[in-house]
Amino acid sequence: MAGAEATAGVEAVFREEHGRLLASLVHRFGDLDLAEEVASEAIEAALVHWPVDGVPSRPGAWLLTTARRRAVDRLRRDRVLATRLAVLQAEAERADPAPPADADPDLPDDRLALFFTCAHPALPAQDRGALTLRFLAGLTTAEVARAFLVPHATMAQRLVRAKRKIRDARIPFRVPGADELPGRLPTVLQAVYSVFTEGYAASSGPDLQRTDLAEEAIRLARILRRLLPGEREVAGLLGLLLLVHARRAARTGPDGAVVLLDDQDRARWDHAMIDEGRALVVVALTGPTPGPYGVQAAIAALHDEAADVASTDWPQVVALYDVLLGMVPSPVVALNRAAAVAMRDGPDAGLALLDGLADDPRLRGYHLYPATRADLLRRLGRLDEAAAAYREALALVGTEPERAHLLRRLASVAED
């Protein structure tokens, strides 16, 4: 039993400390592959020692010290690697001067530098967010693949290719200067949002939510907001995360079962978080054309401000989705817009829009597409079709609470 508890402790610590651990190792040694390998070796060492010695009081420091020792040992054995890393580190130090004496000591500079390294413009656009999500949030390759709606093998290839590009192009490990920030920021924001998305709606596992990831994303968004107070899209992203995360306590029942928005006890929502998010929406929407995070935050605010689903300003929600779809022509945005149209104009109208998305390959494997169709078919009384769509969603769903919810819905429409 002690061994199982220690293993669970290692896994919890690794999930919490992974980004900090990896960023510190990359900062010290300048190589993602080496950092990843020695981080894994430190975890393996913890699995050996912690069941015997107990989990240390500062587990993150224990892992970092162990990983650094493993890296030094490896460099002593491999002179070619040591020479290459020495060159990389010297280049990074020339490009990344010491921080000013009055720098905020609470800012996790190493982690921010790793974010911007992963979002470097030399990397292909499709690889940047995936690389960041894998190494900063500690998600598995399978989880990253699901977040980006691509096959596992495709994502594994992307990650390998991106790491090779960082190494071969000698991309520096540093926070970029003010002149570079506008071009690099959107990818960093997308990476933070992807972390939050996995936390808000886990892609797999026994729980609907992974609040540790959601809260990590919010913390990182707060850091970016402090660093870039004049960037309205940073305010929009933070506002969006707060407005959505404010509902976390009401999204599941005592047994972990899914509670849909229609049935949530809105008194359990975090209203202080909602107030903070709404204030950030004002910042995000004040000025020239807003960005996509500001628009999404405005949609979330409309949901949070309503007394119930029926009284939500659905025409305004649809109008905002129209704006968002013009900015981000994503099938997931189109899916959400169709659901909002169904609330405004009825299930027939929403279903027609969903059927228009049926051939989009980017929705294959995305369980919310057949699940949304099933709900609209159920509302229309087309129960046989609804049952078929629920079965399709069940074949794709990743978490146990969502599976249980879909099974209940299937039972409500299927014939005995």
From TrEMBL:
Alphabetized UniProt keyword annotations: Sigma factor, Transcription, Transcription regulation
GO MF annotations, alphabetized: DNA binding; sigma factor activity
UniProt KW Transcription regulation keyword: yes
Sequence ranges assigned to domain RNA polymerase sigma factor 70 region 4 type in this UniProt record: 118-166
Pfam families for the chain: DUF6596, Sigma70_r2, Sigma70_r4_2
Any one of the GO BP annotations: DNA-templated transcription initiation
Alphabetized InterPro entries for the sequence: DUF6596, RNA_pol_sigma-70_dom, RNA_pol_sigma70_r2, RNA_pol_sigma70_r4_t2, RNA_pol_sigma_r2, RNA_pol_sigma_r3/r4-like, WH-like_DNA-bd_sf
Residue stretches making up the DUF6596 domain: 184-281
Positions of the RNA polymerase sigma-70 region domain: 16-79
Entry keyword annotation includes Transcription: yes
Family: Belongs to the sigma-70 factor family. ECF subfamily.
Protein name: Putative sigma-70 factor, ECF subfamily
